[in-house]
Design a protein that fits this description.
The structure is a single chain. The chain is mostly beta strands. It folds into five domains: 56-102, TSP-1 type 1 repeat (Single Sheet), CATH 2.20.100; 107-254, no CATH class; 260-340, no CATH class; 358-442, Immunoglobulins (Immunoglobulin-like), CATH 2.60.40.10; 450-538, no CATH class. It has helices at 208-213, 390-395, 477-498, 504-516, 518-521, and strands at 19-23, 41-45, 56-57, 72-78, 81-83, 96-102, 111-112, 127-133, 136-138, 151-157, 166-167, 185-189, 195-199, 202-205, 222-226, 262-265, 270-274, 299-303, 307-308, 314-316, 325-332, 334-335, 340-341, 345-352, 358-361, 366-370, 381-384, 397-400, 409-417, 435-442, 450-453, 456-457, 535-538. The strands form 13 sheets. Strands 17-24-21-20 form a four-stranded mixed sheet, with no helix packed on it. Strands 26-30-29-28 form a four-stranded mixed sheet. A three-stranded antiparallel sheet has the order 11-13-14, with no helix packed on it. The relative contact order is 0.06.
Length: 539
């Protein structure tokens, strides 16, 4: 029998029943009762180890609800491991994945500022009321809580005795003008006309106006006082819009001569506008933007007797609509017939600037120039801004970067501009943008070659014709410079030859011979020793 062959490959890569086989051949079969041949095939176990078990995972679950009820949150989806990997099996992937979710904007509650100082007592004599106000520092947004009372009214006493010689009878106090809050008032009027006693034997009935004209003392015909509702603070409800500030209630119209005019602010006590040139209080604010409101929407003034007297409203305070800041306007209105003033009103105007300057590049955004040609980047940017003049924008424009015309490459010039309120074009404002010009310096012209003899350039005619740049359409400036230098050198050399010694004929011959070699000298640097000096190329 022959020798055993090599073991064959295992028929299993892993497990418990893998086998490998080897064989041998019979050279001479047994005959005539000779010994039988042994087995021609042999097997053995192989790869007798556990097979790898890969990880098996379930499908992904549905994404969970957003973790935030407002603003940014995340959603999560999960999956479980059904079979863990063993014996080197494929590992499991992540069991949890999260993704960003964007909810509705979060509510911003109203924030009121501090109370002002108390105002004067509003009464000619006797008791009256005094007021104080406060402004809104943070407007409510996205269903945030509305603002509380912006006006607070309390009782006061002028310290002036009323009508010492007047006899009068007051009517009942009217109901409180408010059901909650701090700015409720009550009024009452005379039930009978005031009586002035001139002497012990005479008593006449006059109106207050008549008493004063005849030298009598002032007799008030109406009284006002603060009132405290059962609910001290009004319920603050979710509202996306700031409600208008409460206005003192109008005096009941009737035979009461001191009923005041009523001032009402258009657009509310707090306005937010975007900065803009021409956005001033005077002129109606035609250049203003933001929320549909001008810098000063104005007010109305209604008098119970004279009707609409809005044309008589006086306004104290100005607004610079181009400059970010807070501005206060005070409104007054007086009935010209009775000389009775309305309660003054105040408005807080906030000017903000959230917009970046907007620009356009002058000329092309990408420029290609020829190397060594002069380049003057006069083209810059034309910019506009609602709150900044053109001259100020030009003054506040800067260029970053430079161009080396002697070095081939790509250069970038960045332009930045700042507006009147400090916003850069590429800053954190609306409409941010970068303005970049790309300048590509290339070299398409051949070198200008000239010849030198003993340190001086040869005849300018040997330089050849000037090459024109296909890019610029202009002659190579190096050619003109080389030709000018050669002409100057040639002039000096001829003057030297003219005053030479008796050997000048040999020098001139050598010089002429050197010119004849200009074609060879334009390619190779060579030297010829002797009285004629050195012949070389210039690039």
């Amino acid at each position: 029998m022959g020798d055993w062959a090599e073991w064959g490959g295992c028929d299993r890569s892993c497990g418990t029943d893998g086998t490998s086989t080897r064989v041998r051949t019979v050279h001479t079969a047994s005959m005539y009762d000779g010994k039988q041949c042994f087995a021609t095939q042999d097997t053995e176990a192989c790869n007798n180890f556990a097979c790898p078990v890969d990880c098996d995972m379930s499908d992904w679950s549905e994404a969970s609800a957003c973790s935030a009820t407002c603003g940014n949150g995340e959603t999560v989806k999960t999956r479980t491991i059904k079979v863990h990997p063993i014996y080197g099996g494929e590992a499991c992937g992540a069991t949890e994945e999260s993704a960003v979710c964007v909810g509705v904007p979060c509510a911003v509650d109203c924030v009121e500022g501090p109370w002002s100082q108390w105002g004067d007592c509003h009464a000619a004599c006797g008791p009256g009321v005094r007021r104080r106000i406060r402004f809104v520092e943070t407007e409510p947004e996205y269903n945030g809580l509305s603002c509380g009372s912006l006006e607070h009214v309390i009782n006061c006493d002028t310290g002036i005795e009323c009508g010492a010689t007047c006899e009068k009878e007051w009517g009942a106090w009217a109901d409180c003008s408010q059901t909650c809050g701090l700015n409720g008032v009550q009024t009452r009027s005379l039930a009978t006309a005031p009586i002035l006693i001139h002497s012990s034997h005479l008593s006449l009935s006059y109106s207050s106006d008549t008493l004063e004209r005849h030298g009598g003392e002032h007799c008030p015909t109406r009284q006002i006082r603060s009132c405290s509702p059962e609910i001290n603070d009004c319920l603050r409800v979710a509202t996306p819009v700031l409600p208008p500030a409460p206005t003192p209630p109008p005096t009941p119209v009737g035979d009461v001569p001191e009923a005041r005019p009523v001032l009402t602010l258009r657009g509310g006590e707090n306005l937010v506008i975007e900065a803009a040139i021409g956005c001033e209080r005077q002129g109606g604010g035609t250049g203003c933007t933001g929320g549909g409101n001008s810098a000063d929407p104005g007010a109305t003034c209604i008098d119970p007797f004279e009707g609409d007297i809005s044309s008589l409203i006086g306004v104290v305070g100005e607004i610079n609509g181009a400059l970010v800041g807070k501005y206060v306007l005070k409104y007054t209105c007086v009935d010209p017939v009775r000389n009775v003033a309305a309660y003054p009103m105040r408005r807080l105007v906030t000017v903000r600037d959230t917009r970046c300057p907007q620009c356009v590049l002058q000329g092309d955004e990408s420029v290609t120039i020829e190397a060594s040609f002069p380049f003057n980047p006069t083209d810059g940017v034309d910019c506009t801004d609602e709150a900044t003049t053109t001259s100020e924008l030009v003054k506040n424009t800067v260029q970053l970067g430079s161009v080396d015309v002697e070095q081939i490459g790509v250069y970038r010039l960045t332009y930045r501009v700042k507006d009147h309120n400090g916003n850069w074009n590429d800053g954190k404002c609306t409409g941010t943008h970068k303005y970049i010009r790309t300048v590509n310096v290339i070299d398409t012209l051949k070198p200008v070659i000239g010849l030198k003899l003993d340190g001086g350039r040869l005849d300018a005619s040997q330089i050849g014709e000037a090459e024109t740049s296909e890019l610029t359409g202009k002659l190579n400036p190096a050619h003109a410079a080389m030709k000018e230098a050669a002409q100057a050198s040639m002039t000096r050399r001829l003057l030297a030859l003219d005053g030479a010694s008796t050997n000048s004929w040999w020098t001139a011959s050598a010089f002429a011979g050197a010119i004849g070699c200009a074609v060879v000298g334009a390619v190779l640097r060579s030297s010829r020793r002797g009285g004629a000096g050195e012949l070389q190329t210039l690039v």
